[in-house]
């Protein structure tokens, strides 16, 4: 989507993929090009400086031209790669007549001041040796000899001599400032040129003398001995005019910005479109800037992808994609990988048993900015990493340590994140305190607090989208219990924040709006692949599982220790939660993603249990899930630990239902998909299995709708024991229940339409189509009992009548 940080009104050349090489290479002008990415915060900060520089040196054209190229624009990405751009902003100076993209020299701009950049242009212009840009006046200091013969050799009326010290730039800058003016020339004279200094009686540096072609000269009288004063003076001289053939460099392309249709988003939700776009951008665009991946960079990529493959709660084909990239990277044993080889692995595989697909599009929904250069990729990257840190808190047994996700993020940002200044800042924060993080919960909180620091630093700057002001997050309306006041000062309730993070960044709060829907074929293949993996133990999924097991083994003792620690932590957490159950903690707990979270937590615990029971438990779990998908109404899963947890959870959360904040109401999609399936069978089954569930039953009878059983299959364990949405299963169940494909798409894509469909379905069932088996059993039993009762009464009266008939009457008196 076009629309960078600069406009045609700026005095610089807006380059595009088709004009970059044509304009910059083999040019008789030198070029200084800023390669930027419109999403890069530092590029946004830098843009006013670059614009000011362009205005400051616009009269240095055509000796040197300034250009810009937006590498965030899809069309330009390859060109940026070709010019060796790995971070933003990158300034490259191309001498006149440069032949190759590699000829560009990086220009460092530490101070980011217009002055230092201008001086840098002068220095780079002086680097021209044999092929001096034809339009550029001489910049070297003048000698006595040159001055003496100047008017014979040059047809001008005036020669201005700027006397200055060696390190001064004034003389050269004034020379370039006057480049487009006729009838006047400028030369610098160094203070060390004693003969000339003496001849013109110069005592201060800088100072200027004007020589006229009639042999007279005078001191240039200015208020301040500085560039702008000299330039102004010279431009006012009689007979000095701006050249009629002033070359003006018009922008090559009038960028037409087609406004994208606004995608409505709800800030209390997380959008899969943002997350998948982040993955695509990170893996296929940011990583692609490095033609060869070696050393620490390769290591960082491996950790990043490993964490994604493990924790990203993606759609099945996206998970296949991540797992296959991860497997491939794990098998890389050499010291380096050419990106071309990796590119093949990053290509979508729609065919075969396990389609591995990650959309090639970038679609921002929750991260959509009011202008193309606001928000987008960095926003999605933050979201992705928050999600991953939260996922790690829920899958402790998979974790290799509290720093696993943060370390991967740090590595990615350090070695790949295009906004180099942002990366430096983040690295600074990481170096300062990341190693103090000792639990996965702390990791999630660390990232939250550091992100808020960045928010505070950037609030009110040019990078802030006016429609999405940078505030401390979560704001009060999203999470009232997160905020507290102590002695009149705002403080965060970190326990509440953690609960909120877990709810907000939970799979149940990820919405599929604007994602490319998976095709029925992909769904089927994914299912087949999973089933195949279960049966044959040969396909990729199982391979992943085995690898996962290997990893588990590798962890060995440490792993177990961590796990135990994890359990300990879990208990601590529970305690903490117990405390938090009082007023504040509750609302956050029952946030929109609650049901999903319950499931996840349930699974986490199940996981610990499973580990105790060994792999068999896991297989049973998988089998149970498959059976359920096949249409089995009852799961054979041992409910054990989870039941207790559920009871506890329901107990804890029930009353909160009454004061559900608005955020809860907004969260409709994933839970709503299943909300109407109030399965009384499994509820009663669980109810009788455990006394602990009595509480849950009470809650349910108070009006709490249980949709537990139906959200379970939405979150399944994949082959790497990795929890994920099982969208395939959700689709399948909905399909079985007779929803048309249109309604299905609606249900999955647009909360509104889907809900309508589901509501209608609910009414059908109310009319009798959907009585549960418990209802039917009770009816049959009642029917049977009443029949028996009638039969009994009938028998009793029959007998009674017969007896009365046969009994001899008392003799009447
Ligand atoms: C690692 C990193 C470092 C960066 N450093 C810089 C920098 O130095 N200079 C610069 O100009 N830009 C920097 N950026 C970009 C900047 O932080 C924003 O991402 C960008 O300006 C877009 O802002 P946004 O309004 O979309 O919200 P973002 O700050 O990108 O937040 C994205 C979403 O995350 C949620 N969120 C917000 N705060 C939190 C929080 N504390 N915890 C959990 N979730 C939260 C919100 O839902 C928000 O919409 C950096 C980005 C990253 C990923």
Task: Please tag this protein with its features.
Glutaredoxin; binds flavin-adenine dinucleotide; 813 residues; 9% strand; Four Helix Bundle (Hemerythrin (Met), subunit A)
Question: Residue share in helices?
Answer: 40-55%
Instruction: Tell me how many strands there are.
Output: 19
**How many helix segments?**
33
CATH architecture of the largest domain: Up-down Bundle
Shape: elongated
- Integer tally of domains: 4
Low-confidence stretches: 245-255, 536-728, 730-770, 807-813
Mean pLDDT: 75
CATH class of the largest domain: Mainly Alpha
Report the CATH superfamily of the largest domain: ERV/ALR sulfhydryl oxidase domain
Strand order of the largest sheet: 1-3-2-4-5
Using the coordinates shown, work out and report the CATH topology of the largest domain: Four Helix Bundle (Hemerythrin (Met), subunit A)
Largest sheet: 5 strands, mixed
Question: What does the radius of gyration come to?
Answer: 37 Å
Small ligands present: flavin-adenine dinucleotide
Strand proportion:
5-15%
Given helix and strand content, the structural type is alpha/beta
Keywords: Disulfide bond, FAD, Flavoprotein, Glycoprotein, Membrane, Oxidoreductase, Secreted, Signal, Transmembrane, Transmembrane helix
Domain Thioredoxin: 1-126
Protein name: Sulfhydryl oxidase
Domain ERV/ALR sulfhydryl oxidase: 370-473
